[in-house]
Design goal:
Helices cover 4% and strands 44% of the residues. It is globular and about 50 Å long.
Amino acid sequence: MKAFRRSFCFSLPRLSLLWFCHRLGIVIAAATGILGAASFSPFQAQEFKPFDQFLNISTRVLVGSGDNVAIAGFVVTGSNPKRVIIRAIGPSLRSAGISNALQDPMLELHDRSGALIANNDNWKDAQEVEIRASGLAPVDDRESAIVRTLSPGAYTAIMRGKAGASGIGLVEGYDLDSSTDSIFANISTRGFVGTGDNAMIGGLIVGGNGGGVNVVIARALGPSLSNAGVQHALQDPTIELRDENGVLIDSNDNWKDRQQAVIERENLGPADDRESALLDVLPAGAYTAIVRGKNDATGVALVEFYDIR
């Protein structure tokens, strides 16, 4: 069985991340429900095919200015172009009880070189017909959306507040054509982690035509971001994985505490022992990874999902 994860990187003024490049030898096993890594065996991998795919990847985060804008990196892998919609949501979050929602989000889409592919302020300004046809038009006219057909590769979506405004926003990508062999393989979002409603929340919808499972690694990075020049990095991030009903599936503080061997086997061990990582097998459904600072600490962190197929 062969699987791989492509690397991605970008370089923008004052905004840089360290991304890891590895070819993966995958060792996978699962049960019919959600399962951690403890019972993985290389001899069971074929029993749990087919594998599904990420249909939606998103992060809810406190958006600030400068280094504290929301930066979402994602990878499309496969051999065919993938049609996607990228959205930046803010004002409509108030209906979900978010009192400090970002009132006028702006969205940029960049390729791996940092070149600007597209940008949008208010979603009706451009591509209104295409966005409505997707069935995913934002609720509020001030929210942003971009529809593009993307070749396999690495991309970055940046969400800012207009005129430097701050507040909680949601940056997300949807797969508009799950019939192709290309998939969302990874999502990483960097942003500021606060307390209470200002925690960082990574969202994931798993599904597709496979009727199978996804083997997912979720990570929360903080201290190692200082090596990339990030100021005020979160020094001790924690992560919780919850299902669509909010039920806790798994959690971690320091990644070496429990699943060190299997995470290292996938070459995805965080650089700092205080950072967090989980490996779980997920059936079709919606999931969230909640990143907080231990003892209510705050700072810039990175939440990531990797699709280990």
